[in-house]
Amino acid sequence: MKQRLMVALDVASTEEALNIQSQLAEHVAWFKVGLRLFVAEGAPLIKKLLQSHKVFLDLKFHDIPNTVAQAIESAGALGVQMVNVHAAGGADMLKRSVAAASAFPDMKLIAVTVLTSDCMPAEQAKKLAVERAILAKKSGLDGVVCSVHEVASIKAACGNGFIAVTPGIRWGDQDIQDQKRVADPTFAIQQGADYLVVGRPIIQAAIPANAADEAVTMMQRGLQC
Ligand code: C5P
């Protein structure tokens, strides 16, 4: 299950990121680098992380098709194993992204459907997420980022092989913070999520490795029941 847990390195510097990476080295296989860290530290940090882990570059590209395709080429050249665009960018942008990513067969290209922090009513979010997932699938992408509550509908519409990456993971009495549509690791696996993205519940824990192990244990429980 640790192959399916992605820890969001939402920190400000290479020093902090590598400190977390070393604490979690044996506990997770993936790190997710988002806007804050990439803007601050860029490609050199990605290369360091890639020496021992897989990297999901979560920059949610959303621009005109040519610009996004060029950004995907740059992500592929970095050697990351996963990158994303925003499905709201539309069919042309998605198709151009797929064409650009095809030069990097080891890199998965996925689309954000609806942010898990979006406050639209749950049913509306699910409908939009499924519509955007279908568009992403038709455009040739490998999968989507969605909330746990949308995974089953998306898999039903797009097939089991279509990857579902789910942020908005919380368990126990953790604060949901700015997330709206949250779920715990056991339920996420039961719903069919392929990868779970966890940020603050792990990186801000007193002992991040223990929090990561706890998430993995809960994920394993999802396979058993
Ligand atoms: O700290 P927390 O577990 O809420 O972090 C979730 C991570 O997943 C953040 O890095 C956030 O940018 C990212 N994310 C998200 N919802 C999406 C896509 C990405 O929360 N739809």
Architecture blueprint of SSEs:
Elements: E1 5-8, H1 14-24, E2 30-33, H2 35-50, E3 54-61, H3 65-78, E4 82-86, H4 91-101, E5 108-112, H5 122-139, E6 143-145, H6 148-158, E7 163-166, H7 185-191, E8 195-198, H8 200-203, H9 208-224
Parallel strand pairs: 1-2, 1-8, 2-3, 3-4, 4-5, 5-6, 6-7, 7-8
The chain binds cytidine-5'-monophosphate.
Q: Give the terminus-to-terminus CA distance.
A: 15 Å
Average pLDDT taken over every residue: 96
Q: Give the assembly state of these chains.
A: single chain
Q: Main β-sheet: number of strands, strand sense, barrel status?
A: 8 strands, parallel, barrel
Structural domains: how many: 1
CATH class bucket: Alpha Beta
- The Cα radius of gyration reads 16 Å
- CATH architecture designation: Alpha-Beta Barrel
Which outline best applies? globular
Helix share bin: 40-55%
Please sum up the structure shown:
This protein is α/β, with parallel strands linked by helices.
Describe the structure in your own words.
The protein has an eight-stranded parallel beta barrel with strand order 1-2-3-4-5-6-7-8, surrounded by seven helices. 48% of the residues lie in helices and 16% in strands. It is globular and about 45 Å long. The longest helix is centred in the middle third of the chain and has 18 residues.
